[in-house]
Every structure is written in structure tokens, then in C-alpha cells.
Amino acid sequence: MKPDDAAPPADAQAVPRVLLVDDDEVNLLLTTQALRDRGFEVTVASGGESALALLDDCLPDVVVLDALMPGLDGFQTCRILRGRSGLESLPVLMLTGLDDDASITRAYAAGATDFFVKSTHWGLLGWRLRHLLRSSRTRAELERSKAKLARAQDLARMGSFDWPRGLSSPLFSTEGLRVLGLSAQHPLRTRGLLRLIAPDARGDLIELLHDTLRHASALAADIPVRFGDGTQRIVHVQAEPEFDEHGLASGYSGFVQDVTDRRLAEDRIRRLAHFDTLTGLPNRTQLNLRTEVAIEHARRMGHQVGVLLVDLDRFKVINDTLGHAAGDELLIEVAHRLRTSVRHSDREIELSVESMGSRSHRLLEAVGRYGGDEFVALLPELSDERDAELVATRILELMKEPIFVGGQECFVTASVGVALFPRDGDSVTDLMRSSDVAMYAAKSRGPNTHSLYSPKLAGRGREKIELESALHKAIERDELVLHYQPKVDARRVRLMGVEALMRWRHNGVLVQPADFIPLAEETGLIVPLSEWALREAARQSRVWQNAFGFTEAIAVNLPNRLFERIDLVEVIHQAVTQHDVPHHAIELEITETGLMKDSGNVNATLHRLNEMGVEISIDDFGTGYSSLAYLTNMPISELKIDRSFVRELGLAPKSSDIVMAIIALARSLGLRVVAEGVETRRQMDVLQRLGCRLMQGFLFSRPLPADELQAWCERVLVERSATWIADRGDDSPDEPSRASHLRAAGARRGR
Amino acid sequence: MTSASSPGAVLDPQALKRLRELDPTGAGKLLERVAKAFEDLAARLLPQLHAGQVAADAEAIRHVAHTLKSSAASVGAVKLSQLCAEMEGMAKQGQTNGMHEPIAALCAELAAVLAALKDALVSHP
Predict the structure, then answer these.
(1) What is the Cβ-side half-sphere exposure of residue A473, based on CA atoms within 13 angstroms?
(2) How many other C-beta atoms can be found within 10 angstroms of the C-beta atom of residue A381?
(3) Is the peptide bond between A422 and the residue preceding it cis, with omega within 30 degrees of 0?
């Protein structure tokens, strides 16, 4: 046995201390002796005054008080003692005479814990005191646990109540009253309690109470309560019926709890779940919910619902160039503007409008943030598609003002797709999809336009979405490939270079650039695509040089915006260095339209590229805003006559005038000139007559897979087996080495 | 009033026995101290009783009777305690006339108790 087990609890072990108060010395003497014999520690006082003085200094476990004493008698002493703090529950035993009923009554009234009739049975007093101590200890524990419970209830802002059957109002505990903002001094009856409840919730509660009582069922409800001081709280009431031994309902018992804080937290969580934190607008969840409710309402009332999907056109560019903080700033400003375009309602919408009143579906109207740079305007009641178009126009108008972000003035344009319920979709999903399709249609038509949904758009729109996601994966899946179209000197039958054209091998089909380059530009994917093309061209240059001594430039098409996005000089330098080819192995083809824009930036880059040996060719020349200024300022080596002029050569008289002018211009500036899209002998002849001998087109070769170029060279340049090569033998004698590089390559291989 | 004053009648033998049990070995000299305390009390109360009688002060008489009643009961002086109780009852009703005889009886009984206590000490020191 462990030593601890043998020892009784500390409390029981301690010697109980008794304060014995009696003016009768004989009695004092004998009682003291008797109690000491029974293990008590006894302090004596001969009267009330001296007893109270002793109590100032030490606290006994129990006080034994003689009832009748000169001076302060036992009753008075007891009353004074009870009034002192810390002595409220000190056990007090009053000594009375036999048959002195009046004293016993007075003793209890004065706050005595119990009484004891004086007797010469000395031992009995000891027993009585032991009992008294034990019960007072139990009582103290009970008090402590009650206090703990009260404290816990206080902390939980809860309290209990009972409502016995037959009683007109419930009986609340002190804590329960506190929860209701009441005090024990001012309890309220049922009518008063009901008045605490917000008027619009009162009727519901009364009905609920009647229902609960009728079925003797449990009650659980959150009730909005307004306190006397005007503060509003939410009180949760929960009660269970109680039954007597016969199984009959005997009343209710339950608790009330202030759940305001919890409700506020829940509201905050719900708010976070339904509203965008950046812009404060309803988010996708809330918008979908609102749209659903609006559709349901419109279905019943027979009107239309409008969904406007607003997508910012250049947001990705702004985010990439100015940073995310600026992007966020921009979104906030856009959100702010969009709010003004509709009767925006911030009110959170729950699952139905039933309880909101007949015109309340108007509260659904809002602009929300649907995704990154996508916003949706929901118009819950439309009579006409023109109403929706009006809002779309207003939105586009609002976007026209420049936005200052990151210390810079930005011009943002948007594309708006409009879809109407029920015409363009009868569910949230369908309606959103239709608005998406319409938005893409608007986007393809140009910046800052809107488009109404039409079924014709649908197929295309979806295709585009799928294409976009596939394009994202094209590079990593190695689905991209370059094809090469020779540029030839038609007169001398010489290869002057090749133009690299990107193809995308998607699902076993070769997708043409026109079908995915615009999408790549729109999504920003053009950046990684172009970087890949430059690296791939450099790699191919190395392969061909090794194979057959190819040293001409490979021209890579670059969208002009790429100049703003990447360090072109660095990318090209790395690409050629990695594959150990000279810088002039790469040539860049850019369009003149882009050159007109941010010419300062582009100009600097072009000069640096040119210094490295990278030549610049202007693609589609003649279609854009031709400007002599940039042609003279920029380090350009080559102009490519747009295929549209070439196509009409020999058909429309004017076309040759334009081509002649371009050739003259190029000659005067010392630039090469290349005709694109040459498909017929006639075109070739006209071009030659006009003084242009560098050409590219199907007449010479379609764009070839890389491994077919060598064969083409052998066939055309060496064997001269091609329809466009004149079969006359009087070739210029100054061209002895038409296929020099082929021979050179052969010689190298032979070494 | 009776004048029976044999020790057995003056002090209740049962009470006396319980008193002795409180100090079985006599080491605490409890009986002696009790007897002394009782004597002191009597010496203090008797003059108060006489003064109360002379001044016809019912409250003074009541106080003496009450105090003596309780102490007498404690030492087993059943008869004395009883006489005190009767006198306390009379005094409580404000009665001061005709107290001569009861007071005399009380004094006689008190003397007997004091004597009996001395005897008890002698027979069981």
C-alpha cells in the first residue's frame, strides 16, 4: 500500500477549530474540556463583543454561541457576524435552553446554521459539531460549483430557465435574466419579454411557441432581441419539455444564450464566401445565386433577365508590366466604375426571394467580380434586349476614361458579352456560357465593343475555349513545330533564306497560325511561343549547317508587342550561342503597324539587334500606315511586299503601280525587297520586270518540314527541276555557283 | 420549600459521573476548577441577587437566576437549576413582590450545592 492511500484527506485530518462563546464560566469550562477531549481546538470568549473581536483576527471552522448572554446576546452576535464579509457561511451553532422554542426560531432568523440544547451530555455537542462541519463543507463545495457554473454560464453568455406548467411566465436564473439584459430586481412577465423581441420577429415566435406547446416538442430558435438600452442582440433559446411520473407534460426547462458574436462571425464568414475581398463586389458564388433567384422569379413573372459578362482586354499586359499591386488597383477602380452602371445592391441574397416582397427581385441587380478580370452585371428584369445593350454601352463608355495606376495613366478597354434569359439559356450555367461566347465574339471584333449572344456564335466560342486550354499545354507537350518556306532569288535560282512558320500539331491535325496566333496574342501565350520559335530556329540553323552547309538566315515572325514583354536581345543571344550559330542566322520579321506604336522602345531594341547582326524585315509592307520616318530611322534591311498586292499583279492595273512604288522606295533606301505570296509564273514575270527578283510563295515551295528542305535544295537548285525555272540555257554567266553551299557541304562531309 | 439536602439529592449522581468522565484521571483537576468557578460565580451573583431584591429590580433578579440556572444544570445541581428557572420565570413577568421566600430557598439550595461540591471533591479528588 502506498503511504498516500493510508492518509485521510487533508481537510478531515486538520484539527477543527471552535470558537466557544458563553458567559457561563462553568459551562465554558466543561464544554471546552469536552470538546478538547474529542479533538477540537477550542478558543473561548465570554461574550458577543469579545467573540466578534476574536473573529477579526482568526477564522474558526465553527462558532458555538450561547443564545442568552449579557451585553450582545447570541442572536445579535450572530447577526453582526453574518454581516461581515467572509463569514456569511461560517457554521454557527446556537446553544439554547431546553423547550425554548422562541430562541430556536430566533436563532435561525439571526442566521444560525443550527441550534443545540444545552445538556450535561458533553459528548453530544462534539458529534453535532462534526456533523455541522461536514455539512457545511458539502455546502461550501456546492456553493463553489454553483459559482463555477454561474461563471461558466456568464462566460458563455447563457443562463437557464424553467417554465412549470400553469405558470404564466418562465422563471429565469440570474444569468438567464442577464442574457436578456434584465436584472433579478426587474424580472419581466411574458408580455414584457415578448416586447423585447424585434417586432417583425414577434409574430413568428408566438406562432412557434404555440406550435411547440401544442405538440409538447422541443424548442430551438435564434431570436433577435432589443434591450432596454437599445442594443440589439441575437438570443438562442433552447428548451425541452419535462414530464411528470404519469408521463404528462409538466412544463419546460431550457436555456437562453447570447449568440450575437457567433452570428456576427458567421455573417462575416458568409460575407467572405459571397463577396470579393479585393473589390467588395459580390463574387461568383453570390452572383450565381442571384442569377438563379432572378431566373426563378423571371420564370414566374414572365420577364427577361440579362447577364453581361465584362472582360478587360489588356489586363494581363498591365498585370505583367506594372505588377500585381497596380493590377489590383486597376481592378478596384474598374469595380468602382462598374457599380455605377447598374442599380447595384450590396445586400446579400439568400436562397429565395419569397420573403423579400414582390418588387424585391430588383435587389438582385448588381455587378460582381466573376474571376480575375471578369465582371458580371446582372439585370434581373428586362423587357427588351435594348435595355441590356444600353447598359453594355454605358459600361464601355465608363471604361474610356484613363485610369491612374502605379503612377501611370492606363487605358483599359473591355469586351462585353450579353445573354438573356430565357432566349439564350434557361439556367445559370447556360446563361453564363452564352454570355462568355458573346464576350469572345465581342473581343474578336475589336476592343471596347459588346456583342449579343447568337446561337451561331456558340460552336466557335466553345471551340475557342478548348483551344486556349490546349494551347497552354502545347509547348510542354512538344506539339509545336516550325515549317520553313524558302525565299528565292528567282532570276539567279538561289536560296536567299527561309521564313519560319509555326504549326501546331493538335489532336493529329496541323493547326494553321491564323487559327491560334490571335488567341495566343490575346492570352499572352505568344511570349513563350515566340521564345520557343527563336530557340528552335537557332537549333535548326545548326542542324542544317551541319547537314548541307546552310548559312542563310531563318526569319522568325515576331508580334510587335513582344518588344515590350521580353528582352529580345538577350533571348536571341542565348539562342544562337547555345547552338553555336552566328547572330545573323536569325532574322526578324515584324509588321509595320506595331512599329508605329511605342517606337522609342522598339527602336532601341532594333538598333541593338542590328548591331549584333540580326537583320530586320518588315512584313506585310504596304498594308499599314507607311511612314517614311520610321523606314529611315530604323535599322531595317528588308521589305516584304504584302501578298494582297502580289495576288492582283497582272489582273488589276493599279496593283503594279503600288508594287513599283514599293520597289522604288526600297531601292532608294538601300533595302532588299521580297514579294510574298507568289503563286503563278505570271506574277513572277511581272515582279521580275518591275525589278523585284527576291520572292516567296507556293510557286517556289510551300512551307516545308525541316527535314525536307535539303531535298528541295537538291531538286530545285542543283537539278533545276521546277516549273518556274526557265528551261532556256542562257543563264547569266555570272552565276557559277548556284548550289555552292550544297557542294561545300558535300566537300565537308567528305573530309 | 423542601429542605432535603442530602448530597444525592443536591447533585445528580449521573451528572456528576459525566463530569468525572471528562477528566477520568483527575490530572486536569477539572472537578476542582469547576467547583471553584461555581463558587466564584455564586460569590459574584449573590450580592447582585440581594441588591436586586432590595431595589425590586426584576431584570437584575432575572439575570442572576438565568446565569445560575445554566451553571447549576452544568454541575448536576438539578434542584437549584429548577429553582433558578422558576425565579427567572417570575422575574421575566416583572414580579418582584413575594420573592423573599423563593430567594431564601434558592440561597439555601445554593449553599447545599456548594457543600456537596466540596464533598464530591473530597470523596473523589
Answers:
(1) 7
(2) 18
(3) yes
Phi (first) and psi of residue A236, to 5 degrees? -90, 130
Rounded Cα gap, residues A730 and A278, in angstroms: 76
Average of pLDDT values for A71-76? 91
Distance from CA of B4 to the nearest CA of A (A): 23
| Minimum CA–CA partner of A66 in chain B | B70
Beta strands in A567-677 (DSSP E): 586-591, 615-621, 638-641, 672-675
Identity of the residue numbered A123 = G
Q: How many Å apart are CA A569 and CA A606, to the nearest integer? A: 9
Task: Decide if A587 contacts A552 (C-beta within 8 A).
Answer: no
Q: Which residue has the cell 438563379?
A: A292
Alpha helices (H) along A156-282: 174-179, 190-196, 199-215, 260-274
**Cell triple for B17:** 459521573
Which DSSP symbol is given to A70?
A: S
Torsion of the alpha carbons at A415, A417, A418 and A423, rounded to the nearest 10: 170
Residue matched to cell numbers 494581363:
A316
Which of A25, A31, A37, A116 should one mutate to test binding to chain B, selecting the residue with the greatest count of B CBs within 10 A? A25
Q: What is the pLDDT of residue A733?
A: 42
Other C-beta atoms lying within 10 Å of the C-beta of residue A64: 27
Element (H, E) at A159: strand A158-164
Phi and psi at residue A334, to the nearest 5°: -60, -45
Alpha carbon distance A573, A746 (integer Å): 29
Chain B residues in contact with A30 by the CB 8 A cut-off are 19, 22, 30, 34, 74
Q: How confident is the model at residue B2 (pLDDT cuts 50, 70, 90)?
A: very low
Can you name the residues that pair with A555 across neighbouring β-strands? A499, A587
Average confidence (pLDDT) over A204-212: 86
CA nearest neighbour of A418 among A446, A399, A390, A445: A390
What's the distance, CA A187 to chain centroid? 48
**What gap in Å lies between CA A495 and CA A479, rounded to an integer?**
28
Please provide the distance, in angstroms rounded to a whole number, between the alpha carbons at the two ends of chain B: 32
Q: What is the rounded CA–CA span in Å between residue A394 and residue A340?
A: 9
> What gap in Å lies between CA B48 and CA A722, rounded to an integer?
159
CB contact under 8 A, B41 and A26: yes
Distance CA A658, CA A519 (A): 32
Cell of A693: 527578283
Amino acid making up residue A421 = F
The grid cell for A393 is: 454601352
> B74 vs A30: CB contact, 8 Å cut-off?
yes
SS3 track for A11-29: HHHCCCEEEEECCCHHHHH
Contact between A92 and A116 under an 8 Å Cβ cutoff? The reply is: no
What is the four-CA torsion angle of B59, B65, B68, B73, rounded to 10 degrees?
Answer: -130
Q: Could you give the residue ranges of the DSSP H alpha helices within B1-125?
A: 7-10, 13-22, 30-55, 58-75, 78-92, 100-123
Angstrom distance (rounded) from CA A521 to CA A523: 6
SS3 B33: helix
CA dihedral A403, A404, A406, A407 (to 10 degrees): 150
Cβ separation B41–A33 shorter than 8 A: no
Name the one residue in this structure whose C-alpha cell is 512584313: A619
Q: How far is CA B106 from CA A626, B52, B63, in A?
A: 147, 14, 14
Inspect the interface and report whether the beta carbons of A24 and B76 lie closer than 8 Å.
no
pTM (two decimals) = 0.42
Cα separation, A73 vs A108, whole angstroms: 14
Tens digits of per-residue pLDDT, A255-305? 998 888 888 887 788 778 888 989 989 988 889 989 999 999 899 888 899
Cell matching residue A235: 438570443
* CA–CA separation, A487 and A705 (whole Å): 15
